[in-house]
Specification:
single chain; alpha/beta; D-Maltodextrin-Binding Protein, domain 2; five-stranded mixed sheet; 43% helix; 21% strand
Length: 344
């Protein structure tokens, strides 16, 4: 009797082992984090059930707000989880470096830096804003760059896109930063906006949505100079300010998820541009901005755009070439190679 039971148990164990092996060979083995080996995204390998996405409160969050409200879906059971960082991009870099997010928005020059410093651990999958930088003045004295002689510009973003854009345009106008025009750097953009809104300073360099916030609080303030337009006049391309990147291992193993995300991103940006009032309401609902009227005013000046694939190369290389000439370290030491630009 014992021999019969032993043989039966052995047979069941063998059958279970064979079934497990068959399941693994057909793509059924699961892994921590909800990933699955095998088919599910064109036989790509690791296919996550949840894609972690990070945006920054401001234009990148505004551009993604329709996706946050109505996430893309697919038969592959891919879902997207969105989180927001504050105005400083340090949190985004940390999340990408730790692998806790798969796709994230961050400043273009920081994306270039991260690509070089990690030897290619990220890929650029889209450009989503041109520069949305303005010289905001509490007054009417500034009509062109030459009117800045002898003035002090208050700014935030030293060592990042705002500094390089401002200094390049001053030099193009024949003005020496620090000599003809003083620049006082502040750590926080929110501090800068508060100073201008309260009338404690007269001229500040700032992006949206801070511009609209100041204009709503100080009736004497106006967007005096659009640096995006001035840069395009000088170089032929608008300055590309915000990148969306994906971790390389994620992008290479999950092309269906990346493609689904890019389709949704392009649609979301187009919808926001066409429906600023509705988009502004969603920005409040998703904690991107606190005031719908300010969000609605900011959207037309936010420089929202959707560029992917080969179309990213010309504007980004044009922009990075100028940054490289000013300070190679600003983009990680050298221009990115073709592998930086994700193709689907």
């Amino acid at each position: 009797m014992r021999s019969t039971i032993f043989k039966a148990c052995a047979a069941l164990s063998l059958a279970a082992a064979l079934l497990t092996a068959a399941a693994c060979s057909q793509g059924g083995a699961t892994h921590p984090g909800g990933a699955t080996d095998g088919p599910g995204a064109g036989g790509e390998g690791m296919v996550p059930t949840t894609v972690e996405v990070m945006a920054i409160k401001g234009p990148s969050g505004i551009g993604m707000v329709k996706m946050m409200d109505s996430p893309p879906s697919a038969a592959d059971d891919i879902t997207f989880n969105y989180r927001l960082a504050g105005s400083r991009p340090d949190e985004v870099v940390a999340a990408l470096s730790s692998g806790s997010v798969d796709i994230a928005a961050l400043p273009t020059n920081l994306a270039g830096n991260l690509y070089q410093k990690t030897s290619g651990d990220i890929r650029l999958i889209a450009l989503i804003t041109y520069a949305n930088l303005f010289l905001v003045e509490a007054g009417t004295a500034i009509e062109g760059m030459s009117d800045l002689v002898g003035k002090t510009i208050h700014a935030s973003g030293q060592g990042a896109n705002p500094q390089y854009i401002l200094e390049y345009l001053l030099q193009e106008a024949g003005l020496a930063p620090g000599t003809d025009v003083a620049i006082e750097w502040h750590t926080e953009m929110s501090e800068l906006a508060a100073l201008l809104a309260s009338g404690q300073i007269d001229i500040a360099l700032m992006p949206e949505p801070f511009v609209s916030t100041v204009l709503a609080k100080n009736s004497q303030a106006r967007a005096a100079l659009d640096l995006n337009g001035l840069w395009k006049e000088a170089t032929g391309y608008p300055p590309v300010m915000t990148a969306v990147v994906a971790r390389t291992d994620f992008a290479e193993g999950n092309s269906t998820a990346v493609s689904l995300f890019l389709d949704g991103l392009g649609q979301s940006i187009a919808w926001v541009q066409a429906n600023p009032a509705d988009a502004a309401a969603l920005c409040v609902a998703h904690d991107i901005m606190a005031d719908a009227s300010i969000a609605q005013a900011a959207i037309p000046r936010s420089g929202l755009v959707f560029i992917e694939g080969n179309d990213m190369k010309a504007p980004l290389i044009s922009y990075f070439s100028i940054l490289e000439a000013a300070n190679p370290a600003s983009i990680g030491g050298s221009l990115p190679d073709d592998a930086f630009f994700y193709q689907r």
